Amino acid sequence: MLYQFASLEFQLFLLSTKSLIPYEDRIGCMFDTNRYKKELEVFAYYKNGKNDIIDCYIKNKRPTLKEDELLEYKLLPIIIANTNWNTLEDEVMKLTLMYTYNKHSIINSIILSSVIFNYMNLDNLNIDILKNASKERLIEFSLVECLKKYNIQIDKKLIIEFEQERINIIGGENIIERLSKLKSAEHIYNNRKGMKKVYKENELILKNFTSYIFKLRKGIINPEKLIINNNNNIRDLKELLRNNEFNHPFLGKCKIIKRNDKEIIFRNKLGLLKVNI
After folding, report:
1. Within this chain, do residues 88 and 176 fall inside the same structural domain, yes or no?
2. Domains held by the chain: number
3. Residue 3 in domain
4. Less crowded by CB within 10 Å, the N or C end of the chain?
């Protein structure tokens, strides 16, 4: 029997979505880094594919200097769920800097956020509006202040390299070239429904989670229902996999579909997941 599993990109999209918590005092969503890190500990067992950035963080619990080529799949839920630019930028940077201090990834996260933010909030858009808005937000962004806010210390050489790259982009015309490498932004430019194309094999799940993200965006979900008590003892997934059925705080109700000496395949409401033994 041939089993189909969600792509790594789609898994990362869901992981970020599950780590969004609405603010209690205003419309908008916080990216809960503590929840996300706990999700990653479980995700390490069932992730479908290899990626240097993710593997580095799971193994070393610290960022790398490599460019994060899967960054947009992690950031999309945060961008869509927030309607205030300052909130959006803060939450996006939390996740970006968790994985990498790479200058290209930091700049790409600002440009991607700006394009999607304007796409979802403004009418009568054209390429010049999107490009100029992205440049303005790059001008306003301060990496030094961002690092200070999150109590992050990095080599001053990296800050200088970032500033040099930022100046090059602000003074040049290569924003369009950068966006052509980001699938979601490229589809916006071409008036295509990019997310549906990228996640075609998971359309029903995507539809449900997209509806969920828009409810977060409108502030109609009670944040108390999404918070998992940090005092709860979360059992190791491999221990739970000894059972034919089990419940997990992050995965919900799960049922074993296949078990052998090499792998265990189980199903939850998000589809099939595989753990290599």
Report:
1. yes
2. 2
3. no
4. N
